[in-house]
């Protein structure tokens, strides 16, 4: 029943809404937040920041709307990101309807804010639109999960987290919740069964509890529910059988981040700074949205630049080391990239991701190139293609949240780029 | 009457409360926000962030509590900040009661988080306490005003703001407020007469309207007042005669920032990044708290590191240029440092600042060394002493907000430091 509900929600998301023409919803045209103060329709605030097209502004300006925890890059000079530009924008490929389209047209059609393509460690194509700049941090939504997942996998590799232990070994507060009898591995791979419905038009579904408790959406008048994410997690109940199948749930990532903090005694943002951002030699600080008591949104709240994500992706492609530093053990990267259980994945209702699996909070394509990726709603991607020696970062503000709507086209674009860089 | 009210409020602040022993309110001892999640008394959130001792944490973590606008440092390597350490911590001087005290004891006694002393362009003493680090941004409160004031003075020098024009030339929305018949210069030097009482125990005084509209304090249930700072400013009324005397009012700085944004078409934080932070070669990004529609708190919301403020102070000492860049014209620096009308200053009720004046939102000491300074509640300072070729940055989290309580001691410390560096 849970799986059916997921399928329904995803199918609803995949239905084509009336999309605004991309050129009609550029920030240059919309003029949000450009006067002092912004008046009327020019305002983006908490009441409309996740509405469209206001979201086009919000995804590049989250920290102006929400409290955030900084992820410091450190004091060292940034690691080099050499460029070897190729005219990939004019590469033509057949879209999902069989019609020719160029890479640049694909970017425009999918409301892209930034694209960085790396090949053999060099930036071969880099493009920004919609007022985004190389130094602009962009909200990554569920790409955040993949950072949390790799952190947890590394800790498991080091013996600091036991994937076979119960979640309650680390977070006893969850004893009476869906996670009470769930194993850590079932959280890491999202095979734990928890009732969490995401129907964006139905405020009785649990996604609203998540959004209100985290502060992502303003609370309705008289709201009496949880006022932070961890208190909200305690309210969620089991629905189905743990381990039976893949059930994509943002709340698993929040629990996983909680486990990571308990195992290390450190805040997620400090781990990200110490173990990832500083070691990779990032160009800019990143940041993560926090709730009213400082809990990072470990499943949805990370903000970073496309170039820094390119460094991260390149580190993944190279097996966990970069800039003379080991970020993750190669065994952790290999375990993630080889993927999870494809049969269990089929039960997740994501038919638009045929043949995929999900492992350590990463999507694994199981294609001939061995590709794997992190993905977030509205078009956020870290795509790693080991065979093509390619990494693609795509940050977008697409009007449709769910990946189902754009994925058939995205799939074609990944293939076209992999072919183009190989030439 | 307004001036009397100010005097009363300041006198109340200057009364010695029962101060906690400094060693009893260190963050190491208090343990705020160190567990996941922080429970009960360990929590610092919007309900207690400006209470004591929770404030000790909040002043180093403001962006984890509030929305902020980043002030980017740019991509260049930081400008050098050479060190030439001197044992200034053990320098002994007589405190305001005539008792001997060392510099380090002074720092502890005034709940100091960071101190940087520059002499002839070199860092001669640098100390951090209370978990603060060289890269930690600290809330500067009214030191913020001094940035806004210099920006405005520079624009006036360039002819982009007319100090003799009415405020309404730039901000017609203020026509029906206290600023309706006020000149820009009266805003810059705080001689405009506006009813704005700061009695922290009386929620009918206007400081509460400022705190609620800005979001600095959580709004009471059923709050129907302004939800952003500019809307709040429109509600304030004239009380007294413009230009008659100095009346210290945070709201003047907010109006001045509004004028600056109107004159330049740019957000305060972008001006700070483009014209100040990037040119000075700062080590870290800074940030400013914003209200619900992105308005920066131009009188109270800046956060920066002590080392970056040292660069700023050194630029002031050198007459407006630093790191091979002109930040302000020398005429602007000279006009500010030479001060304003000392007779008018006396009317402001700040007897603890004898002989001072206020010019372009800076405090001018009119002492033999030609010293001038920016100051914020709870012990924030940029102190420039041209004759001693010294700049002092002091960032603190003192339990008493008003400067009156600590100023007699601060004054002695400035003199002791100036004497010590000259040796």
UniProtKB/TrEMBL annotation, chains A, B:
**InterPro entries, alphabetically?**
Beta-lactam-related (IPR001466), Beta-lactam/transpept-like (IPR012338), Diverse_Enzym_Activities (IPR050789)
Report which superkingdom the organism of origin falls in: Bacteria
Q: Where is the Beta-lactamase-related domain?
A: 113-399
One annotated GO molecular function: hydrolase activity
Q: Which Pfam families match?
A: Beta-lactamase
Keywords annotated in UniProt: Hydrolase
This one is known as 6-aminohexanoate hydrolase
UniProt lineage: Bacteria, Pseudomonadati, Pseudomonadota, Betaproteobacteria, Burkholderiales
């Amino acid at each position: 029943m849970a799986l059916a509900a997921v399928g329904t929600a995803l199918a609803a998301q995949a239905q084509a809404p009336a999309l605004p023409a991309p050129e009609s919803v550029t920030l240059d045209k919309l003029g949000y937040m450009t006067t002092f103060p912004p008046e009327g329709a020019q305002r983006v605030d908490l009441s409309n920041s996740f509405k469209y097209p206001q979201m086009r502004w919000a995804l590049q300006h989250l920290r102006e709307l929400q409290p955030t925890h900084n992820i410091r890059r450190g004091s060292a000079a940034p690691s080099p990101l050499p460029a070897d530009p190729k005219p990939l924008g004019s590469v033509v490929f057949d879209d999902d309807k069989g019609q020719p389209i160029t890479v640049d047209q694909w970017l425009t059609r999918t409301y892209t804010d930034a694209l960085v393509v790396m090949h053999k460690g060099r930036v071969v194509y880099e493009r920004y639109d919609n007022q985004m700049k190389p130094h602009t941090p962009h909200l990554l939504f569920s790409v955040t999960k993949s950072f949390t997942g790799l952190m947890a996998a590394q800790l498991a590799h080091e013996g600091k987290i036991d994937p076979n232990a119960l979640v309650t070994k680390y977070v006893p507060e969850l004893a009476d919740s869906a996670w009470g009898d769930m194993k850590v591995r079932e959280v890491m791979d999202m095979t734990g069964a928890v009732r969490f419905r995401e129907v964006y038009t139905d405020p009785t579904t649990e996604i609203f509890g998540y959004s209100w408790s985290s502060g992502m959406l303003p609370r309705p008048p008289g709201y009496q529910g949880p006022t932070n994410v961890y208190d909200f997690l305690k309210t969620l109940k089991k629905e189905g059988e743990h381990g039976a199948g893949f059930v994509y749930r943002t709340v698993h990532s929040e629990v996983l981040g909680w486990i990571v903090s308990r195992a290390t005694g450190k805040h997620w943002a400090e781990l990200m700074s110490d173990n990832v951002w500083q070691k990779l030699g990032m160009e800019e600080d990143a940041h993560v949205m926090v709730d009213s008591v400082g809990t990072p949104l470990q499943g949805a709240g990370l903000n970073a630049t496309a170039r820094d994500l390119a460094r991260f992706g390149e580190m993944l492609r190279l097996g966990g080391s970069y800039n003379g530093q080991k970020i993750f053990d190669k065994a952790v990267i290999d375990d993630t990239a080889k993927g999870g259980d494809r049969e269990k994945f089929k039960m997740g209702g994501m038919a638009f991701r045929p043949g995929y699996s999900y492992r350590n909070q990463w999507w694994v394509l199981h294609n001939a190139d061995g590709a794997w990726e992190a993905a977030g709603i509205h078009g956020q991607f870290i795509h790693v293609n080991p065979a093509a020696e390619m990494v693609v970062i795509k940050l977008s503000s697409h009007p449709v949240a769910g990946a189902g709507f754009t994925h058939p086209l995205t799939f074609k674009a990944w293939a076209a780029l992999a072919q183009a860089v190989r030439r």
